[in-house]
Amino acid sequence: MTHLQAGLSPETLEKAKVELKENPETLHQDIQEVRDMIITRPDIGFLRTDDAFILRFLRARKFNHFEAFRLLAQYFEYRQQNLDMFKNLKATDPGIKQALKDGFPGVLSNLDRYGRKILVLFAANWDQSR
């Protein structure tokens, strides 16, 4: 087990190994492979490239290096294109908390074609006056 897996239960570690193809012996190599792809996109400002952050994207794409990098690039590209939206975005913001309480975001019961959960935004549930 690596420091990136510290705190995970044995059940979670086994689930990561079976479902995500996470291998503690190659974890740092997997992260480095994604990190090495960053130079292929000089047009994007990758603000975070630490191991823990890249690991999130590897897990989200079941350790498919190319797909994890593609998601990472799309994440930073979207943030760059929408600076105003993310300028003061904080989970502690009362407006954000109220939107979550109102049920604004939700998760569909069906999975996408890759077996991932689908987050949806139910705009009808959102009381903008709050």
From TrEMBL:
- Entry keyword annotation includes Transmembrane: no
Q: Which GO terms describe its cellular component?
A: clathrin-coated vesicle; endosome; membrane; trans-Golgi network
Cell compartments where the protein resides: Endomembrane system
Q: Provide the CRAL/TRIO N-terminal domain boundaries.
A: 50-75
**Xref: SMART domains:** CRAL_TRIO_N (SM01100)
Recorded topology in the membrane: Peripheral membrane protein
One example of the protein's molecular function in GO is: phosphatidylinositol bisphosphate binding
What keywords are annotated for this sequence in UniProt?
Lipid-binding, Membrane
Q: Which InterPro entries does the entry link to?
A: CRAL/TRIO_N_dom, CRAL/TRIO_N_dom_sf
Top-level lineage group: Eukaryota
Q: Which Pfam families match?
A: CRAL_TRIO_N
Nucleotide-binding among the record's keywords?
no
Its GO biological process annotations read: lysosome organization
Know the name of this protein? Clavesin 2
**What is the source species?**
Seriola lalandi dorsalis
